[in-house]
Design a protein that fits this description.
- By secondary structure, this protein is α/β, with parallel strands linked by helices.
- The protein folds into two domains: 126 residues, Response regulator (Rossmann fold, 3-Layer(aba) Sandwich); 90 residues, Arc Repressor Mutant, subunit A.
- The chain contains nine helices and twelve strands.
- It has a five-stranded parallel sheet, with helices on both faces.
- It is elongated and about 60 Å long.
- It starts with a helix and ends in a 5-residue tail after the last strand.
Length: 229
């Protein structure tokens, strides 16, 4: 089970379903878990959103107009073999599953399915996404271990406070992303009211612990790990 809510918050989900009622209900549930949920009503829109938004998780209905879920996934697998996929299918569509299995789906759910079944499938996908990435290599000889929650410079562990750990864990998931001040404050402190100056102070103290540059300012916007500024 994935208990770290920050792993949910920074996952970008693409959900495709042609039935309006189901689409509204499921997209609402997804919006409670994930910050970015992109919703498509047919296969063509799903493919366009995939290319535009670069999501981390796919949840596709099989039977959709324009392109069905299997056709969309076939096109996606030409360029992306790793993204986890949940396929939604009715009993009458089970023959499609043989094609879906060949496309390396993570889970499939038979309609109608419960909310808990969907949540369990999502957690399995998140585990699959993290597997093989327990330790990520960052710039300037840094690595972050998601299992032990430790930051290393070369082979030396850097001691981190709770808020520093939240910052590093969040940014290391997308090191090329520019995180806004507001996004970082929300992710680190949650509902607590915290000023931008508190975030800047946190980064300043953290930088003093780091033997080499890791977190970079983007003037007036926020911070990133990848920038050479």
């Amino acid at each position: 089970m994935v208990n770290n809510t920050s792993l949910y918050k920074n996952i970008r989900v693409l959900y495709a379903e042609d039935e309006e009622g189901i689409r509204e209900n499921i997209s609402f549930v997804l919006s409670l878990l994930f910050k970015d949920v992109f919703v498509a009503k047919d296969g063509q829109e799903a493919l366009e959103l995939f290319e535009e938004k670069n999501p981390d998780l796919l949840i596709f209905d099989i039977c959709m107009p324009k392109y069905d879920g299997i056709e969309v996934l076939t096109l996606i697998r030409k360029t992306n073999q790793e993204i986890p996929v949940i396929v939604l299918t009715a009993h009458t569509e089970q023959p499609y599953l043989f094609r879906a299995i060949e496309l390396n789906i993570t889970r499939y759910l038979l309609k109608p399915f419960s909310k808990n079944s969907l949540l369990n499938a999502i957690e399995e996908c998140l585990i699959k996404r993290i597997k093989g990435k327990e330790c990520i290599t960052l710039k300037n000889s840094y690595t972050f271990d998601y299992v032990t929650k430790n930051l290393f410079f070369k082979q030396t562990k850097i001691p981190l406070s709770l808020h520093e750990l939240k910052l590093i864990e969040l940014m290391s998931q997308q090191p090329s992303k520019i995180f806004s001040f507001e996004e970082l404050i929300e992710s680190i402190w949650g509902w607590e009211i915290v000023s931008k100056e508190a975030l800047k102070s946190l980064v300043k103290v953290l930088r003093k612990k780091l033997p080499a540059p890791l977190i970079h300012n983007i003037f007036g916007i926020g911070y990133t790990m990848d920038s050479e500024q």
